[in-house]
Amino acid sequence: MSDLVTFGETMLRLSPPDSRRLETASEFEVCAGGAESNVAIAANKLGIPSTWLSKVPETPLGRRVVGELRQHGIETDVVWSHRGRQGTYYMERAGKPRGATVIYDRDDTAISTAKAREFDIDRVQNATVFFTTGITPALSSTLRDTTASMLKAARSGGTTTAFDFNYRRKLWAPDEAEQTLTKLFPGIDVLIIAARDARTVLGFEGDPRQLAHKLGSQYDFQTVVVTRGSEGAVGWHDSVVHEQDAYETDTVSKIGTGDAFTGAFIARRLHGDDVPTALEYATATAALKRTIPGDVALVSQEEVEEVVSSGGSELSR
What we know:
Blueprint: E1 4-7, E2 11-15, E3 29-33, H1 35-45, E4 50-57, H2 60-71, E5 75-81, E6 88-92, E7 101-105, H3 121-126, E8 129-133, H4 135-138, H5 141-156, E9 160-164, H6 174-184, E10 190-194, H7 195-200, H8 208-219, E11 223-227, E12 233-237, E13 240-244, H9 257-270, H10 275-289, H11 301-310
Parallel strand pairs: 1-4, 1-8, 2-6, 4-5, 8-9, 9-10, 10-11
Antiparallel strand pairs: 2-3, 6-7, 11-12, 12-13
């Protein structure tokens, strides 16, 4: 059985090469990407056997997603569906002032109908950590109930529950997200949240240290990690706040950076590291991910350890 089990949707990402516009593109680069599978892959790269649960259409596109994830070494346990679509998203990459543009095409997807009873709950209850994100309940009312049921099942089996708040404004409004996600908080042990989301969605005020302490105290989490973008992250545990600066990096792609961070943080905690050490490895993994195109952190444990030991200077050749 896997130490880490994740649950959520993985999409196919289609991107025009270079900085071309979607409306004139004649070819696309294709890869699979989803927060929960990205986390599973990052943790697996750092030595934690991981499984991704989902509901996937029995179509060539659905098989394409599952096949790619398996190539990255994680175990997939999916419910194959003859109804619903495979979610996709399109990303147009560009520098300033245009920036990146993301267009979702994920209505009526197979996973939007997923119910907890369709999955092998023993996998969840036998794992050490169960992980999902705030993206999943944003996709349908059915998934709101399913996410709550999965978290409850994990807790009842003694599995630690970890949750990335992961607010996406293109999926729902802040007030709807706040009402839905705070109802899940009693079933969550470890919360990862961006400082901007704590302010925008939850209405919390203060610097990241204050946000972490307020969240941990108010909602009785075991651990709270507040990410702060290019400035690193802070972690609250046992009423103590720990800070970790980001490592300098030359950014090729920001997509999946947060997932790489989360996967590495969970992995190092599962390896027995304390929160400060786990934050150190998580920020190193996130820095490496920013040098890699695509959604997935294709890193090795040796690379991450070298970034940590060198303080973020260029890896030796």
